Amino acid sequence: MEVHPPTYAITMAMGTMKRFDAGFMRYKTRGVVFPPSIDYPDLSTLHADATGITADCSIGTIPLRAQDQPVPLEHKARFVYVTGWAIDQVAHRPAGGIHVVIDDTFIPVFIGARRDDIARAFSNPDYCHCGFVVAVPVTLIGPGSHHISVLFLNARRTAYSAFPFSAVVQIPGAR
User: Fold this and answer.
1) Beta 144-153 vs 167-171: how paired, if at all?
2) Among 144, 40, 47, 31, which residue's Cα sits nearest to residue 100?
3) Half-sphere exposure at residue 127, Cβ-oriented, CA atoms within 13 angstroms
4) CA-CA distance, 77 to 79, in Å (whole number)?
5) Which of 38, 52, 136, 146 is 20 to 30 A distant from 78 in Cα terms?
6) Is 122 inside a domain boundary?
7) d(CA 2, CA 171)
8) Is 140 helix (H, G, I), strand (E, B) or coil?
């Protein structure tokens, strides 16, 4: 089963982002501000086998898949948006964490954006907060070609797995 982030969900999630802070987003939903820090374990202490993780990701509205050509950003783009969802079907809960990897930089990302469509698709209401959105300023990445991939932690945060696809994003020259 393939469930991609629908454009309306991405647009709604982008509207809830308040500011970029140290590699992740702060969300404000109905007056609740989620914590500005993410306490994920050091990946070097985990093993690379998070069996049971099911996920999907996009760069903006383009599904993150193996690309023959780099994904170009508009010259006026200020952010690279990586969105998606991740669930741990063994634990029957959302994934325990996410890292967006740009080149060799690991960016921890808050998981918990509402995704009722995923809860419905998998007939599990516990999956309704399995979404994520991160906006990385292009000024922090720099112009040129950059490799983007995503790692997922299992719900217990004892193992991780890499999303099977990655992409190269082409960021235009100086603004």
Assistant:
1) antiparallel
2) 40
3) 21
4) 6
5) 38
6) yes
7) 28
8) helix
What distance in Å separates the CA atoms of residue 86 and residue 130, rounded to the nearest whole number? 6
Type of residue numbered 165: F
DSSP annotation of 133: E
- Determine the Cα angle at 106 with ends 154 and 8, to 5°: 70
pTM given for the model: 0.73
Q: Give the CATH number for residue 73.
A: 2.60.40.10
d(CA 11, CA 60): 9
Strand-pair partners of 17:
27
pLDDT one digit per residue (tens) for the chain, 175 residues: 333 333 333 333 333 333 333 333 433 334 333 444 567 777 777 777 767 889 888 887 778 765 556 777 777 888 889 999 999 999 999 999 999 999 988 888 989 999 999 999 999 999 999 999 998 888 888 889 999 989 999 999 988 888 777 888 888 875 4
Identify the domain containing residue 68 by its residue range: 7-33+48-171
